[in-house]
Each structure stands twice: as structure tokens, then as C-alpha cells.
Amino acid sequence: MQAGIAILVFAGLMAVKTTFAAQHVMGGSQGWEESVDFDSWSSDQSFKVGDQLVFKYSGLHSVVELGSETAYKSCDLGTPVNSLSSGNDVVKLSETGTRYFACGTPGHCEQGMKVKVNVVSSDSTAVPSPGSGSSSDSDSSSGHGLRRASIEYMLAVGSLIMGLVWSF
Ligand SMILES: [Cu+2]
């Protein structure tokens, strides 16, 4: 019985952990493709420490991580921080800051196949969007984020309690 409870507690903790970390499939359903407008796609995303980026693509493409805004802007792929080419690559966001990714196929970056990922602390509930202004705006969006986080937390705790009840 005790071992069973320990397993349930562990499963519950895993549920909490996974509810808070998100996987971002780059480009959404289209994936890592030239046709995606990555600027507008990424503006709807909230990238947090602990989240993962997933790059899904065909053999026409690859993933090159760039080390600077300058390299990103000019599509300078000469000194990449990291290169990936499996077609189903997972990149973990382990700290705050900006990460830059582009396709390594000649010409694709210039065509817009690149994305900038602004990673914020996992405590943050709101990502200020450029040009958005008033304090009431940011208040309401952070309130929304908090509400969402607490609902996810309650779901995780709820499933843990359900598990405990069933074990008796
Ligand atoms: Cu490409």
C-alpha cells in the first residue's frame, strides 16, 4: 500500500511538473517550414524557462542556432552555436534570455525562415508585447496567467487526490 501511495505521489508531482512546462512546436501545425510567418507565430507564444522547442521538418531544412542578434538579422550562419538536423529536434530552454534559430539551408533564412525566442522566467505570467502600453493591460494579462496557472495546479492536485482515493 505504501509503495502504491509513493508511486501516486510521484505521478502527481510529475503531473505538476509537466503541466507547468510547455512544448512549443515551432510554426504550429505547419512545422518548421518556409511558408510560416514565424514573427507572428512567436508573438502568440509565451516561452518560459523549462519549456521545450520542437522543430519538425523535412530533409529540405535544418536548424542552426545563432549566437547574436547581429547574426540573426544578417542571416550569418557561419558561426552557429548549435546545429540540428534530425527533423524532430527538441531544444530545452534552460535559462532566460533570447535564443536565435534559423534554417541552415542556403537562402531559407533570407526568405524569413528564422525565429527569435524570448525566454522569460517561469514565474512570469505575462510577456510584455512590444508597443503595448497601459498598466491596466499588463495587470489584466498577468491576472489571466495566474488564473490559468492555478487551474492547471488544481487539476494536477485533483488527479493526485483522485488517485489516492482510488488506491483505498
Ligand atoms: Cu529551410
UniProtKB/TrEMBL annotation:
Bias (Low complexity) ranges: 128-143
GO MF annotations in UniProt: electron transfer activity; metal ion binding
PROSITE patterns recorded: COPPER_BLUE, PHYTOCYANIN
Top-level taxonomic group: Eukaryota
Record bears the keyword Signal: yes
InterPro entries: BlueCu_1_BS, Cupredoxin, Phytocyanin-like, Phytocyanin_dom
Region (Disordered): 123-143
Domain Phytocyanin: 22-121
The keyword ATP-binding is annotated on this UniProt entry: no
UniProt KW keywords: Copper, Glycoprotein, GPI-anchor, Lipoprotein, Membrane, Metal-binding, Signal
Cellular component aspect of the GO annotation: plasma membrane; side of membrane
Annotated signal peptide: 1-21
Protein name (Swiss-Prot/TrEMBL): Phytocyanin domain-containing protein
Organism of provenance: Brassica campestris (Field mustard)
